[in-house]
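Table S2 (text version). Query chain:
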Amino acid sequence: MHTISPKIVTKEQTSFTELLDNVEGIILDLDNLHYYTLNSTGLFLWKQLRKGYAQTREQMAELLSEAFRLPVSVLDADVRAFLSELEANGLITYAANGDGEVAGRVVVTGDLPGYEAPRLKLSNALTQVTLSGSSTIATGAITATGG
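Corresponding structure-token output:
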């Protein structure tokens, strides 16, 4: 019998902004006002989680496999590590077992960069949240609100 992982639930008290399509994103934890940056793969996975298109670790690995054409077995360890980072920073929790079925997928517009392990980076200060040295982009992204 196949056991399904617990359902992953993203923290409601967060604001999310994508800085450049499929390249980098920022999560603001509204409880502690910490900023986190996501690399392109982390951004892809966060969007899947927020939309409810991936509810379990297995579903996240399957989506990465589809998007990057890599074996699920290779991606599973990266997904586990990413989920550990999210959980350690209070950005996700686990609920009852996932139902195994999801309603759809986030449509990727444009090309995805090459695969790299998903990463979450804590940036406590606004000055640390920059993209290519442009504080204007980061400031604009942070003042915008998003799901």
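Notes on Table S2: Strands lie at 6-10, 14-20, 24-29, 34-38, 92-97, 120-123. The helical segments are 40-51, 57-68, 72-88, 135-143.
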